[in-house]
Amino acid sequence: MGKKLKTETVTKPEAKPKESPKTPVPKRAIWTGSLTIGLINVPVRLYPMIYDRGISFHFLHKTDGQPLKYERVCTKDGKLVPWDEVVKGYEVAKKQYIVFNKEELDAFKPESDRRIRIDKFIDYLSIDPIYFHTSYILMPDKSNDSYGLLLKALETKGKACIGRITLRTKEYPAIVHAYKDSLVLTTLRYPYDVADPQSLEELKELKEPAKAELALAVKIITDLSGEFDITEYRDNYREKVEALIQKKLKGERIVVEKPVVKEEAKELMSALRETLKQLEKK
Amino acid sequence: MNERLTKVNFSNLDKVIFPKLKITKAQVIEYYIKVAPRLLEVVADRAIVLTRYPDGVDAQGFYAKDMPKGTPSWVRTKTFYSDSAERNVNYIIVNDLDTLIWLANLAAIEIHMPLSRVDAREKPDFVLFDIDPEPPAGFDDAIAVALLLKEKLDQLGLQPYIKTSGKKGFHIVIPIVREYTYGRTREFAHVIGQFLARESEIVVSEFSETKTPNKVFMDYTQNSHGKTMVVPYGLRATPDATASTPLDWKEVNKGLKPESLSLFSVVKREKDPWKGILENRQKLEVR
Predict the structure, then answer these.
(1) Residues 6 or more apart from B220 whose CB is under 8 A from it?
(2) B5:A265 CB<8 A
(3) How far apart are alpha carbons A266 and B7 in whole angstroms?
(4) Could you say which of B1, B34, B260 has the minimum Cβ distance to residue A223?
(5) CA-CA distance, B273 to A147, in Å (whole number)?
(6) Which of A143, A182, A251, B59 could covalently link to B55 via disulfide, CB atoms 3.0 to 4.6 Å apart?
């Protein structure tokens, strides 16, 4: 760590000032089809909405700074295996596989009939958020009128549609609701993909707390109760790495310091920054 | 952590200071950092007095006027002869965030300030009405007296400010031009107290009546050289980690619970009812 690698392939982009990450703008639809309610059809395109952005690194060769690549080699003879010799195996027991080829698996693929089939209308908030999987923005596909009508109708009734969608090889329950003047589709998890906390034995041994303790805990909750504001939360790791990236871009020598500040002092530091900012304004 | 945000070297951050709520020194420091902009505005240029609780508020604290051994050179101090100690004392002046953090790191939970500043120690810039209910009189009685006092001061064309003491009473202050001696402000508070005592059964205004059960004492003697008041937003060494909290007069109503104004809740209060208090200096000329 801390060693600067000189590579010829790296060009130096302009160093930008540190800022919080911008909200992404989806570029390309990942699915097109139509939303069907009985006989009504609303052609739609599905755009990604959720971006799980971390900071990604590439593996480089330490000695010359060149990027590394992965290759498929046979575990027996260590030789490179070309794609046309690759099949999929399902492990039935240790080191025992049932072999599938592409045609066989394709035959099992759920029929992606390019439809979001709506079964009924429900209250959005009646779904336990545990089941929410991923959200997508639904865009009209030359269907502005019917799209707008459905949106308005959902807003008026305060309801959401529940139905099914097949994405790639998987069929999901999905909910479509009005959000910021658009329709948003959220795929849901199956109950069998969610663990039941009560399956953990320890939870069955919880003692009933003493009254006084409970009263105190409840008091703390009351004292600390507030409005939820997601913008109060930031990815500190990401911010630090980004700051480091900016420094490296400017060619500053990076001294990797041991974290002198312990866990509990982190809060102090962020409070300090905030107060220093306020005092500066005065 | 490349940049150094404070000159203070933190120590024993996980030491528990308020055992009932398991509040650590780190949380105390964080609290003082957060209220600093509001607190410093009033406490600046005053020779403060501390009550330190290095072993937590359940253990014996100690009162300290003199700067402790090992006080860093960047901490501002001022030396005065102390009548009570009968010697020169190096008082700490809290004019910046670092000094405040340093005090918190010393477990100086309670910070008390005189009503006058070091450049004119005989000319206070506050009149203080210390409202102190004696059980079984309680906080609701203190509220009633505070509102009565407010009404009286309003009639006199004065604009008082109020804070909880962090214990069982209130501190009501009028920021004043620095023209009056303590003798004058003490007399003023005393006269107002006597006035209220005539109007209200529950108020007592004379020093001899201190600690009369079920009465609310308006302690005019607090307006004296050498007396101090806990700083606004200062914590108190109470089990609930209460803070002496400036209030808007609209908040002073029956049912207000001083114990709910604590280390946890006070930092969340958005408005500072005492904002600009020293820019609103008033004259005690009563029309």
Answers:
(1) B129, B130, B186, B189, B190, B193, B205
(2) no
(3) 16
(4) B260
(5) 51
(6) B59
| Residue A69 · residue A60 · CB < 8 Å | no
Look up tokens 């300030």; give the residue.
B113
CA proximity to A174, closest of A136, A126, A139: A136
pTM, to two decimals: 0.55
Q: Which two tokens stand for residue A229?
A: 């504001």
Delimiting residues of CATH 2.40.290.10 domain(s) in chain A: 31-50+109-193
Please report where in the chains the tokens 């650590």 appear, as a residue. Answer: B24
Please report, in tens digits, the pLDDT of each residue of chain A (282 residues total): 344 444 333 444 444 444 556 788 888 898 999 999 888 889 999 999 998 877 888 888 888 778 888 888 988 888 888 888 888 888 888 888 888 877 777 776 666 678 898 989 999 889 999 999 999 999 999 999 999 999 999 999 999 999 999 887 788 999 999 999 999 999 999 999 999 998 888 888 888 888 888 888 888 888 777 888 888 788 888 888 888 888 888 876 655 555 555 565 778 888 888 888 888 876
Look at the block and give the residue holding tokens 């982009």. Answer: A13
Q: Which CATH class is domain A31-50+109-193?
A: mainly beta
Could you tell me the two tokens for A273? Answer: 């920054």
How would DSSP label each residue in A60-112?
B-TTT-PBP----B-TTT--B--GGG--EEEEEETTEEEEE-HHHHHHHS---
Greatest distance between any 2 Cα atoms in chain A: 72
Burial A28-51 (b: 16+ CB within 10 A, else e): ebebebbbbbeeeebbbbbbbbee
Neighbours of A111 (CB within 10 A): 8
- Which of A239, A246, A268 should we substitute to test contact with B (largest number of B Cβ atoms within 10 Å)? A268
- Per the listing, tokens 């392939």 go with A9
Interface touch B5/A261, C-beta < 8 Å = no
The token pair at A21 is 């990450």
What is the token pair recorded at B102?
A: 């340093």
